[in-house]
Amino acid sequence: MKYCFLILIIFAIACRKAYNPPVVAANANYLVVEGSINTGSDSTIFYLSRTVNIKQKIVANPELNAVVSVESNDNVIYPLQPAGNGKYVSPGLNLDNTRTYRLRINTAGGKAYLSDFLTPKVSPPIDSVGYIVQSNGLQVYLNTHDPANASRYYMWQYNETWMFNSFFDSEFIISADTVALRPANQQVYYCFASDSTSTIVLNSSAKLSQDVIYQTPITFLPSTSEKIEDRYSILIKQYALTPDAYSYYQQLKTNTQNLGSIFDPEPSQLPGNIHEVNNPAEPVIGYITAGTVSQKRIFIDSRNLPAWLPFTYYQMIGCAADVMAINTQAEIDFYYLHNPPYYMPTTSPGAGAYPICTDCTLRGTKTPPPFWQ
Questions:
Q1: Alpha-carbon torsion 26, 31, 34, 36, what sign?
Q2: pTM of the model
């Protein structure tokens, strides 16, 4: 009986055959278009890329050397300039919102793509941005309304900037034969970092009698987040959408952010509004919108928050225990000359730590952004 069971196992292994489903085996190389035609004073920015096969190791596949422009229904052309890595930009266009506009893309490979003509949607101003302190962090929210009841469908994007500090303050500089106090213009304790999210935030007042959005959640900042250890700023941009655009972004959010469990909906194909001129059946990923953008920025200071200790990053990499005595010239020579900069001095010339624990410029920049207060 034992041998029969062994033979069955060998037979089962021998009969197994690799299965490559069509989605893995397909050699898809579809155009992806991300951006919006800004008819106001802000820049119009589009990102062009190509899809990659699931089994490929590359993630980014930018569409380079394309010719991109905005066209009006009275045949005026507004070119966008390449800015590298698949990014195409035009300064504020200040367009007439009573006309319609479309996007044209001519790729270096000889293909031409056109979006549908779009009627611009004018975004109302953002009334306010605030936050609610919860037991485990901050909930950032937004309020807006349209007195004309003409917007109804909204999308928000946001950029975050924050000031943070290294775990140790490197107060000394050690060279080959000297130890000196670190001058103020070479401090590496406080730095700035920023992030542009890809999270899709949507809300609608279509089922309400008034076009009012009240305390819609934008982002949650855990109490352990480094972003709020000192000073944090968020810039929120608001877009008014058509019902079709809103439906597209709802489906995109479902496909990209609400997957992962057996109870989540299955991903589905997204019908966009941009097409290949000579082959309309070719899939193109993206939905072009047009209109003005409203924006508002707020700052949040840690002194106005509970006494949280958001040091999880440094604890994760072991900085709390990463202090080493450096006493002799031989030790200095080894750590600072043979393996620079393996260790950096902290609060005294005789104590050192890994640079990632003492030099904030390894993760950010010392230069504050122009808007920083």
A1: negative
A2: 0.82
